[in-house]
Every structure is written in structure tokens, then in C-alpha cells.
Amino acid sequence: MRRLAELREQVDTWRGMETKARDLRELLALAGHESDADLAQAVAADLAALSERFEEMQLSLALSGEYDRRDAILAIHAGAGGTDSQDWAEMLLRMYLRWADKRGYTANVLDLMPGEEAGIKSATVEVIGPYAYGYLRAERGVHRLVRISPYDASKSRHTSFVLAEVMPEVESEAEVSLNPDDLRVDVFRASGHGGQNVQKNSTAIRITHIPTGLVVTCQNERSQGRNKESAMKVLEARLLERELERRAEEQAKLKGEHVSAGWGNQIRSYVLHPYKMVKDHRTGFETSDAEGVLDGDLDPLLRAYQKATLGA
Q: How many domains does the chain have?
């Protein structure tokens, strides 16, 4: 019934746009016949808005996957490079939080591991909103930053890497089978910068899925129960993502090729020195507004990815 409602909403939107286009055509003909400049200007403004809406709806066709409408689990991991990579990981976290806020999504930081000196080692975020996974799956991969390091006394140029993982949230127990006997749950105190404990009570949770070796930790909430609930949500998403990857590998083998989605597959570069540019290596899209992108203006990059997906 939910899927039926979604399809009905899409059909109604397309039909409404069709009616709007027909009305604008008639108004434009009337403005030309009566030489009404004001009416022609109003029609032009409405037409521009309709064209923009049409492009949005057209791009939404790229978000027609089985899981695209779902909420997403986003995980960020600093790569090799010490403090610079950890700082870069925190910059990316801020970028995604700002992007989610601009789209009207809700972003909850489920787990965050601070770096020793600055930045973060890793973070896990739940992004809640329509098509959150459909949009964010374009961000899956390695993100490279080139800049003058603020942590290098010699002011030399550094390259840092961060891995972004994106998983769809599990919506029903039927999608992922979890046997309680396969789980090991450990409780510990939440830690802050430098590893020091920041809470007196042991509220942080670590869940290990013994058959796969997957380990999930959550420590952001003050309640042990809330942390366990969040950790289970992330574990289920990771297990679902693993199953999707297994299916994709099988399909790729049937096609005679397989491209690993591993650490070395860099998807995007962010250059802050000696010039400013953000370039997506999959679509060729680039912009000199690096500050805008890092401030959450990701939609042009995401639209370029969607267009490339439609054209594939």
C-alpha cells in the first residue's frame, strides 16, 4: 500500500505538470495575440519554474532503486595521514550535516570517535528523510583533500584521504536475520579526545556479529539502551549492505567483469591549494566553489551523478 501511494503521488505530479504546461502554452499564445508584455513575462517566469521542476522529476528517475527512498546510515573513516586526515574527516562530517540540514533532513550522530589532537577518527550518522539513501549513495567511496596543512610547521602541501560508506536503513526484520546467539555485546565508558573517559557510567555499547566479524560501537547517547538500539540499527544496515554487495558481485561476474568498491577507488578530489576546485572523477563535474561544497552545497555534484546514472 505504501508503494502504491508513492507511485500514485509520482503519477499525479507528472499529470499536474502536463496540465500546467498546456495552460502555459495557451497563455503564451494569448499574450502573443494581444501583445501583452506583462502576461508574457509572467508566463516566462512560470515556465522557468516548471522547467526546473521538470528537471528535478527527471533526475528523480535515477532514484528508483529498491532502497533509494529509505533513510541512510553514513559512516566516515579517516585514512592514513594522522591528524590531517582526521581533520579532513571532521570537515566532511560537517559538510554532510550542513547538506542534510539544507535539505530539511534530520541527521543524528550515532557514534563519533575523536582524534588524538584534532578532528575525528570516525563517525556514524543516521540521515532521515525521503530519498536520503538514494542521494547519499553517490558519496560512497574515497574523498581526497589537497591543501596546505595547518598542522605542519613547514607549511607544506598535504594530501589526505577519507572513506565514506553509505548504507540503507533496514525497515523490517524480514530483511536481515539476526540470531541473538551470534551477537557479543560489550559495555564500556564513552571516551573523548586522547582516549580519556568522559562518563562515569558504562553506557557505550560495542556489538560484535560473530559469524561475519562485523563490529559496531555507539557511545553518543547517555543511555545504554539508546546506544544499544542505535548500534543494532547500524549493524543491521551493514549486514544488508553486505548482502547487496554480494548480489552485485554475483551479477558482475555473470557480466564477465567485477570492479571492487575498495579503498583505492577515489571518487572525488577537493583541492584548496594551489588553486580551489572540487572534481568528481566519475562524472567529470568540477567547480571552483570549494568553500560552498564544503559548506553543504552538494546538490550540483549529486545532480551530475544522477544524470550520469541515467545515461549509463
A: 3
